[in-house]
Design a protein that fits this description.
single chain, 96 residues, mainly alpha, Histone, subunit A, two-stranded antiparallel ribbon, 3 helices, 2 strands
């Protein structure tokens, strides 16, 4: 698959990337090479091969789901500049 300059500009627009006109040709060539490599990989026969998440046959160590810290909400809210109904009040930063 070969990408055109128009394709690259459209991809850049969708990704919200600012790209100079001078770079479009180089990106088109590089992205085309990537797409050709993906097409080459798609041609590989994977019949009978199970998908895997990791190359080693290992399992995750799991820890017990236990509370390890005490509830310090009251202490933290006692030193907060402004609190109301259990919520921290902060200055408005976006005018609406």
């Amino acid at each position: 698959m070969s990408l055109t300059a128009t394709d690259v500009k459209k991809i850049a627009h969708l990704a919200r990337l600012n790209m100079s006109e001078n770079d479009v040709a180089a990106y088109a060539e590089q992205l085309s090479k990537i797409m050709q490599f993906v097409e080459q990989m798609n041609e590989t026969d994977t019949t009978g091969i199970e998908p895997i998440a990791h190359s080693f046959d290992i399992s995750q160590r799991m820890r017990p789901d236990e509370v390890t810290e005490t509830d310090q909400r009251a202490a933290f809210q006692a030193i907060a500049p402004q609190v109301e109904a259990g919520l921290y009040l902060v200055p408005q930063v976006i005018e609406g």
